[in-house]
Amino acid sequence: RFGIPLVVILVACVAMVSSAIATPPAAGLPLGIVDSETRWQFSTIPHATIDSSVIRVGDVLRPLHRSLAAWPRLRDATIGLMPIDGSPAKLDRDRVAAVLASAEATPEKISIHGDSTITVHRTGKPAFQAAKPRADLIAPVSYATPTTIASATIERIERWIEIGLEQQHTEIERSFDYQIEVRDDDIGTLDTIEGIREIEFVDEAPDWAASVDSESNPIITRVHVLGRGRGRTCEGTVTIRWQPRPAIVVTNKPLRRGHRVSRFDLIRSPRPRSFGEKPCVEDPEDLIGLEVTGNVRANVPLLSDDFAAPIAIRRGELIEVRVAGGGVQVTTAAKSLGEGSIGDLIEVETLQPRRRLIARVLDSTMVEILTAPQRSRGKIR
User: Which stretches of 230-364 are assigned E, i.e. beta strand?
Assistant: First the structure.
C-alpha cells in the first residue's frame, strides 16, 4: 500500500463527475502514518463552488478533526473534472469514501457525513476563455483560425493542456494570461486525448520578469503535448499566446508592525487571478519610507491600508512646544499625550504650568501651537 502513488485513486473518479473526462495522474504527496485502527471522518460541502476546471478533495470535503496529519496531502489531490458543457458536477458521497479508502497509506475506516450527493459549481468562465488577452493587443499571424476540428475536441484539448500547465509549469501559468490555439496541421493525434503526461516547450519559455514592462505584442510559443488517449500515447503541437499579468508589489520577507519600509524589502510579482480587482500597490516608490501598520506576510499582494507615514512622536515622549502667533514665538517643554506623523495634530501637556493643548507635529522633537485657527489642519491623534 505504501508504494503506490496517492493519485492512482483518481482513475476511479470519472464515474462520479457528470460528462467529465478522465482524471490525469498527479505527483505523489508525502505520506502520513496509519494503521488498522485509524479512522478518518469528513463532512461534505454539499454545494461546493470552485474557480477551476479541476475538482480536488478539499473542494468537497472537510475533516472533522483538525489534527488529521494526512489532510495536507489529501486536500489538493485531484478527484475529477468539471463537465465540458458548464453544468454542475455531481459526486456520490459513498463513492468518494470508497475511493479515498483505496488510496495510498489511507485507512479502510473512512466516514463521510452530510448530503449523499455533492454538487460542484464553477464560477466565472473556464480558464481557457478567461485567459484570452485583449483583442487589441494580439498581433495578426500568418495562419488562419482552424475550421475543420470539432469545437468539442478543441475544448477538450485546451482543458487538458490547461491542467498540464497548472501542474507542470505552475510559475509560468500563474504569471501569464494565455490563449491556446489548436491548428489542423499540428494536432497530430491529440484529438484522442483523455489525459496529460508532459508539456514541453518547443520554443523558449516566456519570462515574466523580462516581458512585464514590454509594450510589444504577446509572446507566441509552441509546446509539444504528450498525452494518453484510448489506451495509447497521443501527441501533437499547439501554439500558445502569452500576455504577462500586471505587476504588483510584494515583500520578500515578513514585516512586523512599525517596520520602516526600504527598497530592499520590496519586489514585483504577477498579480494573482484570485485577487480580483482589489487595489494592490503597483509601484514600490509608493511605499518606501512608510511604516507598516500591521504584520505583513511575504509574497502577498500589498494594500495601501497596510502602510502609513512613520510615527514621528509617540505617546509619553518629552518634546518642545513652539507657540507662534503675531510674529512672536515662545518655546516650552511638554509631554506628548498622543502619537502622530509629521503634519498630524496631537494632544500635549505643558510641564509648567500644566495645560493640555492641541499642537501640530513638526518633527520628532518639536510641535507647534497655532494661534490662528484658520491654519489648523489635519487629524488629532
Answer: 232-244, 247-251, 266-270, 291-292, 307-308, 318-325, 328-336, 345-350, 356-361
The pairs formed by 42-46 with CB atoms below 8 angstroms and a separation of 24 or more are 42/110, 42/111, 42/112, 42/113, 43/112, 43/113, 43/114, 44/93, 44/112, 44/113, 44/114, 44/115, 44/118, 45/114, 45/118, 46/114, 46/115, 46/117, 46/118, 46/119
User: Rounded CA gap, 159 and 169, in Å?
Assistant: 15
Find, among 219, 212, 220, 218, the residue nearest to 246 by Cα: 212
DSSP state of 280: B
- Comparing CA positions, the residue from 231, 218, 296, 219 lying closest to residue 258 is 296
pTM above 0.70, yes or no: no
Rounded to an integer, the average pLDDT of 219-247 is 89
Contact 162, 209 (CB under 8 A): no
Q: Count of H helices and E strands in the chain?
A: 7, 21
pLDDT for 359-377, tens place per residue?
888 888 888 886 654 444 5
**DSSP letter string over 203-268?**
SPPP-HHHHTT--SPPEEEEEEEEEEETTEEEEEEEEEEEEEPPEEEEESS-B-TTPBP-GGGEEE
Nearest to 299 by CA among 318, 275, 323: 275
The predicted-structure confidence for 124-141, as pLDDT tens digits, reads as follows 544 334 334 434 433 333
Q: Quote the distance between the C-alpha of residue 179 and its chain's center.
A: 20
